[in-house]
C-alpha cells in the first residue's frame, strides 16, 4: 500500500500535473504526502556570480518564493484529506530526493518526467531518470 508519498516538485507544469495523480491515490490508501522542493545549489552559485546582490540575498528570495508555492500545494493536499509535510532544501536535487526518500521512509515517489531545465536534461539525463535508477521505492513518473 502507498501510505506515504514523496512528491519532489520544481513547480513546473508537469510537476503540477503529478499533483493531480497524487490526489487520486487518496482512494488507494495514501495518507501522507511529503512535498520536497530542492533549490539547486549550482543555480545559486551562477546567479550570485553574475547577478546583483550576494548569494545569501538571492537564496533568501528564492527560498521565500519556493515556500509560497509549497504552501499553496500543501493547502490543496490538506483540503483533499492528506497529512502533509513541506520541505524546502538547498543542494543537489537528486541527492536531496534520495535523502528525503530514506529519512521519510516513503512508500513511493511521484515525480514529473521533465522539469524546467529541458536543455540540460537532453545532455545529462533528467533528475527523474536518475531517481528511477537509484531510488529504493517505487517511482510513478507523470508525463507531460
Please render the helix and strand layout as text.
Layout: E1 4-8, H1 13-24, E2 32-40, H2 41-50, H3 55-79, E3 83-91, H4 93-104, E4 108-112, H5 118-124, H6 127-134, E5 139-142
Parallel strand pairs: 1-2, 1-4, 2-3, 4-5
Helix pairs in contact: 4-6
Report Rg: 15 Å
Number of domains as seen in the coordinates: 1
Assign the CATH superfamily. Answer: HUPs
Strand content: 15-25%
For the record, the CATH architecture stands as 3-Layer(aba) Sandwich
Mean pLDDT: 87
Using the coordinates above, name the CATH class.
Alpha Beta
SSE ordering: EHEHHEHEHHE
**Strand segment tally:** 5
The helix fraction, in percent, is: 40-55%
Distance between the termini: 26 Å
Count of runs of 4 or more consecutive helical residues: 6
Major sheet: 5 strands, parallel
CATH topology: Rossmann fold
Describe the structure.
The chain is an alpha/beta fold and 144 residues long. It has a single domain, classed as Rossmann fold (3-Layer(aba) Sandwich). 51% of the residues lie in helices and 22% in strands. The protein contains 6 helices and 5 strands, in the order βαβααβαβααβ. Strands 3-2-1-4-5 form a 5-stranded parallel sheet, with helices on both faces. Helix 1 (13-24) links the parallel strand 1 (4-8) and strand 2 (32-40). Helix 4 (93-104) packs across helix 6. The longest helix has 25 residues, at 55-79.
Amino acid at each position: 500500500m502507498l501510505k506515504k508519498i514523496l512528491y519532489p516538485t520544481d513547480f513546473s507544469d508537469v510537476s503540477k500535473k503529478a499533483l493531480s495523480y497524487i490526489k487520486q491515490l487518496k482512494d488507494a490508501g495514501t495518507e501522507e504526502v511529503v512535498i520536497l522542493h530542492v533549490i539547486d545549489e549550482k543555480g545559486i552559485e551562477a546567479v550570485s556570480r553574475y547577478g546583483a546582490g550576494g548569494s545569501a540575498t538571492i537564496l533568501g528570495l528564492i527560498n521565500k518564493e519556493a515556500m509560497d508555492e509549497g504552501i499553496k500545494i500543501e493547502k490543496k493536499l490538506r483540503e483533499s484529506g492528506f497529512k502533509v509535510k513541506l520541505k524546502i532544501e538547498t543542494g543537489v536535487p537528486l541527492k536531496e530526493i534520495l535523502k528525503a526518500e530514506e529519512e521519510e521512509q516513503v512508500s513511493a515517489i511521484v515525480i514529473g518526467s521533465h522539469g524546467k531545465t529541458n536543455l540540460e536534461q537532453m545532455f545529462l539525463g533528467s533528475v527523474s531518470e536518475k531517481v528511477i535508477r537509484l531510488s529504493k521505492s517505487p517511482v510513478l513518473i507523470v508525463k507531460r
